[in-house]
Specification:
heterodimer; A: mainly beta; five-stranded antiparallel β-sheet; 6% helix; globular; B: four-stranded mixed β-sheet; 13 helices; 12% strand
Chain lengths: 136, 395
């Protein structure tokens, strides 16, 4: 499992908005576990996690531990930022869904579409840590 | 003309809970939708119209459509009048059905006022240690520093990766807008720029440069839409609305994400079909230009060129009035003229009306302009957005 990092690597991240529906995800994140939701009705995994499956509308969705591995679908490095450049993008998880995230732990000029990445957690300003991805 | 007998209520479902500490507001909306659909004997894929009011968390109807995975919605309405909203929605849904804009309309209401802070809707950010109940996507998206610049940047990056689109091609869109803006005395930016100027402007969010971005301005606009009877009594050229289409787009669970197209792939064909015309018939196009990539993707999606060919289509001045085949944004658009309160939709219609009236600046007026299109994207191409297309004809 990924380690929670003590300090923000690139950009301070605010506390995520936690709802009663998403709370299990954030509780697991605090333990360094990356969860996704899968539907027992149709078998599909989805992101962001929901109580009802966005594919078949079944309410039989379950949390699943994910290794958080995938490839970069697309990205953009923001150059205009008071705290320095940072990269936003989507990762296509090996389970299928695309996840919006930040890319960290690398020279941002080396990022590329199709690059393999893996989840890690970054501390936030007073909230649970959030998933970010780094090249492997 | 009436809605009388043109629409039926075939599903109705009331949530049994009176105290819902363990479910989010978005979840309650979805459960209500599921209940009403089951009552009617329909599935969510049958839904092509969605109606909600201010109790629905998120961005208009967009967040709930995305949360529920309503993939076939082609008509949406988030009219807010408090507790009476849902009765208005029945009337609006009947109108939309009578006009053929949708055939299965879903109306939802839900909320959790008994849950205090944890049941409060709105756009509030996370507060450490406190539950919130805002847009369901907020916790998973708002933390990553997403802005229009970098989420549209992601779209441009993927478009370049899949189709070989270049920054030079994107720059041509700004160049064309600047050629038009030089004649607009009110334009925020009036200087003609070159492809090199765009490429040499500083990078904002890869691969978008400063001059790939629209301006930030104050301002506004207004429109008057009338019945044919009123129009005939007025001493102005009659600009007839002959087609309209709309569609949301969002990740909807993240499987098969495709950032190289927009909701225009659905709103465009709907509008063209209603108008009975094709992209080749359009003499002038107002195309939402929050960024250069926005224009390129929408031109492809509307069918002005094939998917992936937008870069070639916009190059070499093809969008410049008097030079190219498709004059666009002859007021200078959002890229040069204005983008009032960061919403450019109304100015797109206004310049199309000027063109159809023959009242555009003489240097950019399209000769014999009798058919025009205006198209907009609201929200972000990179996350969730609403697309709308309008086709207008001079009578």
């Amino acid at each position: 499992m990924s380690e929670v990092q003590d300090k923000p690597q690139v950009r301070p991240i605010p506390a995520p908005a936690v709802t009663i529906e998403s709370k299990p995800f954030w509780d697991a994140a605090s333990e360094g576990r990356f969860l996704i939701k899968r539907c027992n009705g149709c078998g599909e995994a989805h992101w962001y996690p929901r109580a009802l499956c966005p594919y078949c509308f079944s309410d039989d969705t379950v949390w699943e531990d994910s290794p958080g591995e995938g490839v970069i679908y697309s990205y953009s490095v923001m150059h205009r930022s008071p705290t320095g450049p940072y990269a936003i993008g989507y990762v296509t998880l090996n389970e299928g869904p695309a996840v919006l995230t930040n890319f960290v732990g690398c020279d941002l000029s080396t990022l590329s579409i199709g690059q393999k990445v893996k989840v890690q957690f970054q501390a936030t300003e007073g909230g649970p840590p959030v998933p970010v991805f780094a090249p492997v | 003309m009436s809605i009388k007998g043109k629409a039926y209520i075939m599903g109705a479902w009331e949530h049994p809970l009176r105290d819902a500490p363990d479910k989010s507001t978005a979840q309650l909306h979805a459960e209500c939708a599921r209940g009403a659909l089951a009552d009617a004997g329909l599935t969510k894929d049958d839904v092509d119209g969605y109606f909600c009011a201010g109790d629905a968390p998120g961005f208009g109807a967009m967040s709930m459509i995305d949360y529920m995975g309503l993939r076939n919605v082609r008509h949406m309405d988030s009219t807010e009048t408090g507790g009476s909203s849902y009765l208005l929605h029945v009337g609006h849904a009947a109108q939309a059905i009578a006009e053929g804009k949708c055939s299965v309309a879903l109306i939802t209401l839900a909320g959790r006022p008994r849950q205090g802070q944890g049941g409060r809707p709105g756009f509030g950010a996370g507060k450490p240690g406190q539950l919130t109940d805002g847009p369901p996507e907020a916790g998973f998206e708002n933390i990553y520093g997403g802005s229009t610049h970098n989420t549209y940047g992601m779209c441009a990056m993927r478009h370049m990766y899949e189709y070989g689109t270049t920054s030079e091609q994107l720059a041509w869109i700004k160049v064309a807008a600047s050629h038009h803006a030089q004649w607009n005395e009110n334009a925020f930016l009036k200087s003609v720029v070159t492809v090199e100027d765009v490429l040499n402007s500083r990078l904002i969010a890869d691969p978008l440069h400063l001059l790939d971005c629209c301006v930030v301005t104050d301002g506004g606009g207004a429109l008057i839409v009338t019945s044919p009877e009123v129009a005939r009594q007025l001493n102005r050229p009659r600009i007839k609305v002959i087609g309209a289409g709309e569609a949301p787009k969002g990740p909807q669970g993240g499987r098969g994400l495709d950032l190289t197209h927009s909701g225009a792939v659905w709103s465009g064909p709907t509008a063209f079909a209603e108008a009975g015309v094709t992209p080749a018939d359009i003499k002038y196009a107002s195309i939402y230009d929050s960024f250069t990539i926005t224009v390129l993707m929408q031109l492809e999606d509307l069918g002005f060129c094939a998917k992936g060919q937008g870069g070639k289509f916009v190059a070499d001045g093809n969008l410049i009035s008097g030079v190219g085949k498709l004059p666009f944004n002859t007021d200078g658009g959002g890229l040069c003229n204005n983008h009032p309160t960061n919403r450019g939709g109304i100015t797109k219609v206004i310049e199309a009306v000027r063109q159809l009236r023959g009242e555009a600046h003489p240097k950019v007026q399209v000769p014999n302009c009798d058919l025009a299109l205006a198209h907009g994207t609201g929200g972000s191409l990179g996350t969730r957005h609403g697309a709308a297309t309008v086709i207008l004809e001079r009578e």
